[in-house]
Amino acid sequence: METIHVNASKEEIGQVFDFVNSELEAAGADLKMRMKIQLAVEEIYVNIASYAYPAGAQNFGADVAVDVKDGVARIIFKDRGLKYNPLEKEDPDVTLAANERQIGGLGIFMVKKMMDDVLYEYRYEDGANILTLIKNL
What we know:
- This protein is an alpha+beta fold.
- A hairpin with a 4-residue loop joins strand 4 and strand 5.
- The mean pLDDT is 90.
- It has a single domain, classed as Histidine kinase-like ATPase, C-terminal domain (Heat Shock Protein 90).
- It has a five-stranded antiparallel beta sheet, with helices on one face.
- The protein is built from three helices and five strands.
């Protein structure tokens, strides 16, 4: 499993994209699949960069790992920011008109729809949020 560590800031999104894309391409994922995964990667990474470390808190950065085995890609995000499980948030009611919906939650909803599975765990021993995106290639 290949891993990079980046500062948890939006300026690092290009490095995250390049890393994930090159790992998926090396594993044989086609362009359409890589683009779909990139959308999910962007949503998760931008949320980490925006919310994991509030103003004044130490930014421990984020680890992004890619593991592809037996035609299944796992993209794993790890940060040591505020404990937050995005999967606990109720899915938005997409049957409502856009102006009637509550703000927030649409991004993680889209990620859950695009990926085959999304898993979250919190590791108390190192205070880490770990979010795993799983996609059958």
